[in-house]
Design a protein that fits this description.
2 copies of one chain form a homodimer. With 187 residues, the first copy, chain A, is mainly α. Chain A has 2 domains: 3-61, Homeodomain-like (Arc Repressor Mutant, subunit A, Orthogonal Bundle), CATH 1.10.10; 76-183, no CATH class. Chain A is built from 10 helices and no strands. In chain A, helix 2 packs across helix 3 (44-51). Chain A is elongated. The termini of chain A are far apart. At the A-B interface, helix 1, helix 7, helix 8, helix 9 and helix 10 of A face helix 1, helix 7, helix 8, helix 9 and helix 10 of B. Chain A binds a DNA duplex (18 and 18 nucleotides) through residues 4, 7-8, 11, 32-34, 42-46, 48-49, 53-54.
Chain lengths: 187, 187
DNA sequence: GTCTATAATTCGATAGAC
DNA sequence: GTCTATCGAATTATAGAC
């Protein structure tokens, strides 16, 4: 309400934005509070004051909702393309997923959140599509290996051929893979 | 030759084995020289004496040769299955690849080595199979996203459904994917 | 609200005794 | 060859002045 309040809100937001970028680029360990504060143009002590600890700051920086649509009006034959399209564009526009992926490799709580997201958000959507409940977990996991593998190679390891491809090229290549994992008979 | 020499060799090997395990489990940053020395049952100073620095120790712990066969007698229709079979069993039996993968996420030199391995070892093998040279890099990269994604989910993130699958189940699911990335017409 | 100063750890690396 | 002792740097986190 007052100017003080407004500025503190802006500072909070600046800290969180800087934290997201640092965590995305450097991972949990190498992203220091000092660096985050420097990026936000404030004192490191302010980060502690606003967020309590590095852990709590990370928890908020890595907080996000997949916002996975239910693909209700997508024909069965195009489910793979729709899923790939959603994930690729989601990844391109929101670095939070990269934050989480990078941290999950060395941070157990981040890894746990990664596991939860796929178990709690992806599986139910596929259930609604009428995929055999006894197979849906394995199918979602297989699709997860491909989508996370792309994210790893494109955004984290930055392998040149994967970075060079356009989003549309990637989608065209990956769609049949996901389609098969989700809908084709088990081998 | 003498007993002193033999024991120092054994100590060197013990350090390297402990380092590989720690790097595989904890990544580069969190794997401390102190912890590695404790695992090996020796003094931390010995690690420095034998390997000079943490960087050099890691370089040796992450050193490995893919030993990718040339798949000369594999029929074209079974190339995907052969490649997947090789990688899965390679991963199951040698944790060095996990060492490298885990470190590559936060360590630039490890990421560079990862990129080099796929560019310098995988691509030439596919070239010999007669894959269109103008497409072979992209095809190898796509296969890389799927194989690294599996390694990430199974060995690093340890997603329950992926861990639960047997190597043979995994191979059966993944083989058609790799087959398509390597040999089918581009979309 | 913001910053200075510093406490408390932890780490890689070194020096030197034995 | 092995270990003790320790340095110097970097980190998170806290206490308190302004």
């Amino acid at each position: 309400m007052t100017e003080r309040t407004r500025r503190s809100d802006a500072t909070r937001a600046a800290i969180l934005a800087a934290a997201r970028e640092r965590f995305a680029r450097d991972g949990y360990d190498r992203a220091t509070i000092r660096a985050i504060a420097a990026d936000a143009g404030i004192d490191p002590a302010m980060v502690m004051r606003y967020y309590g600890s590095k852990d709590k700051l990370f928890a908020l920086a890595a907080e996000f909702d997949l916002r996975l649509p239910d693909f209700a009006e997508v024909p069965d034959t195009e489910l793979g393309a729709a899923v790939v399209d959603f994930f690729i564009h989601r990844w391109e526009s929101d670095e939070t997923l990269v934050v989480l992926l990078r941290a999950a490799v060395t941070n157990e709580s981040a890894a746990d959140r990664m596991r939860t997201i796929f178990g709690a958000q992806v599986v139910p959507v596929l259930m609604k599509r009428g995929i055999d409940p006894s197979e849906v977990t394995a199918r979602a996991a297989l699709a997860g290996t491909q989508m996370l593998g792309v994210a790893l190679c494109r955004y984290v390891l930055q392998m040149p051929p994967v970075v060079a491809m356009t989003a549309e090229e990637l989608i065209a290549w990956l769609a049949p893979t996901i389609q098969r994992y989700l809908t084709h008979p088990a081998p």
